[in-house]
C-alpha cells in the first residue's frame, strides 16, 4: 500500500510541478523528488517479493516486467536530470522522465485492476503509521543528501540553465511557414501587420523562459504590452484567448494583460522562426507552454480563463 501511495504522490506532484508558476514551484518540485526517493526505498525493500513472484509465474508477468522496466527508466531519467544531464539522445533527460511516467500510468492501472490491492485492517494500526512516518523522514533525508552531494544547480522549477532559448514545440506542433509580408494579427477586432506593431509603444522585459522539457534561459524580450494592444475591453470579458498559427491556444485572466508582452525581438534581434516569429507571447512567471508562439489572434472572450484543459493537446 505504501508503494502505491508513494507512486500516486510522485505522479500528482509531478503534474502539479508543470502547472504552477515558476515562483511557487520549488516546494512542489522538492516534494516530487522526495516522493521519488520514497519509491526507490520501497522498491529496494521489495526486491525479494518481486523475485519470489517471478518464480511463481504471476499472471500477466510480461506486463509487470514492462511496467518495471518503464519505472526503472523513469527513475533513471529523473536522476540523470537532477545531476545536470541535459540531453539523452533526441530528448532531454526530463523529457524522457515525463514520457516514461506517462507510459507507466496505464501499465500501473492494468496492474491494479488485475491484481487489486485491498485495504487491510493492519493498514490503520499504530505500527503502520510509524512505518509511513519513517518512510517520509527517510525519503526527505535521502533527497536532502542527494541534493547536497550530487544535485546540479537548478531553478525552482527544477530546470537546468542554458545560454539561450531553444526552438521547441508543444507535442506535435511544428514550426509553420509564415510569410512576414502578409502576416496579420487580430487583436480586439483590429488587424495589425508587423509594421503597425512596430509603430506602437515598445517595451522590454528581461525574464526567464522556463520550458517544461527541463531547461530555462534568461533573455530580454521586446514588443507590445498586450493591454496596450487591446485597449479597453468590452463588457463581459472574462478571459483573453491567445491563438497560434498552428491552432494552439491558451486563455488568460484579463488582469494579467498588463504583465504580458507580445514580443517580436529577443536580445535586440528579430525572433527566429523556431522561437515564435513573427510574434510570440511572453508571460513572466509562467511555464513555457503558456508562451504561445506564432501568435495570430488575441481576442476577448466571455469564457472564463479556467475553461481549458490544463495541458493542451
Task: Tell me about this structure.
This protein is of the alpha+beta class and about 325 residues long. The chain has two domains: about 1-155, no CATH class; about 180-300, Oxidoreductase, molybdopterin-binding domain (Sulfite Oxidase, Chain A, domain 2, Alpha-Beta Complex), CATH 3.90.420. Helix content is about 40%, strand content about 20%. It has eight helices and 13 strands. The strands form three sheets. Strands 3, 6, 7, 10, 11 and 12 form a six-stranded mixed sheet that branches. A five-stranded mixed sheet has the order 5-4-13-8-9. A two-stranded antiparallel sheet has the order 1-2. Helix 1 (about 1-20) runs antiparallel to helix 2. The two termini are about 35 Å apart.
Q: Helix tally?
A: 8
Reading the helices and strands in chain order gives HHHHEEHHEEEHEEHEEEEEE
Question: Distance between the terminal alpha carbons, to the nearest Å?
Answer: 33 Å
The portion of residues forming beta strands comes to: 15-25%
Output mean pLDDT. 90
Number of strands: 13
Amino acid at each position: 500500500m505504501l508503494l502505491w501511495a508513494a507512486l500516486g504522490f510522485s505522479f500528482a506532484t509531478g503534474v502539479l510541478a508543470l502547472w504552477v508558476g515558476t515562483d511557487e514551484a520549488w516546494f512542489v518540485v522538492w516534494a516530487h523528488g522526495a516522493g521519488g526517493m520514497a519509491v526507490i526505498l520501497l522498491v529496494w525493500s521489495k526486491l525479494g517479493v518481486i523475485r519470489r513472484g517471478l518464480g511463481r509465474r504471476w499472471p500477466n508477468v510480461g506486463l509487470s516486467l514492462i511496467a518495471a522496466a518503464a519505472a526503472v527508466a523513469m527513475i533513471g531519467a529523473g536522476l540523470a536530470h537532477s545531476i545536470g544531464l541535459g540531453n539523452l539522445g533526441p530528448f532531454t533527460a526530463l523529457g524522457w522522465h515525463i514520457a516514461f511516467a506517462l507510459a507507466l500510468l496505464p501499465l500501473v492501472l492494468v496492474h491494479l485492476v488485475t491484481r487489486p490491492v485491498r485495504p487491510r485492517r493492519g493498514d490503520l494500526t499504530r505500527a503502520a503509521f510509524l512505518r509511513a512516518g519513517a518512510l517520509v523522514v527517510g525519503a526527505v533525508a535521502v533527497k536532502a543528501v542527494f541534493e547536497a552531494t550530487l544535485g546540479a544547480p537548478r531553478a525552482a522549477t527544477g530546470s537546468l540553465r542554458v545560454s539561450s532559448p531553444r526552438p521547441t514545440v508543444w507535442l506535435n506542433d511544428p514550426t509553420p511557414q509564415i510569410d512576414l509580408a502578409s502576416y496579420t494579427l487580430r487583436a480586439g477586432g483590429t488587424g495589425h501587420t508587423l509594421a503597425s506593431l512596430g509603430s506602437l509603444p515598445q517595451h522590454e522585459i528581461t525574464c526567464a523562459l522556463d520550458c517544461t522539457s527541463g531547461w530555462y534561459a534568461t533573455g530580454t524580450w521586446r514588443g507590445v504590452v498586450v493591454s496596450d494592444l487591446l485597449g479597453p475591453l468590452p463588457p463581459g470579458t472574462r478571459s483573453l484567448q491567445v491563438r497560434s498559427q498552428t491552432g494552439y491556444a491558451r486563455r488568460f485572466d484579463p488582469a494579467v494583460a498588463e504583465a504580458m508582452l507580445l514580443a517580436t525581438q529577443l536580445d535586440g534581434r528579430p525572433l527566429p522562426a523556431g522561437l515564435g516569429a513573427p510574434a510570440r507571447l511572453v508571460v513572466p512567471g509562467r511555464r513555457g507552454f503558456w508562451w504561445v508562439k506564432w501568435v495570430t489572434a488575441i481576442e476577448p472572450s466571455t469564457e472564463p480563463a479556467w475553461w481549458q484543459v490544463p495541458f493542451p493537446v
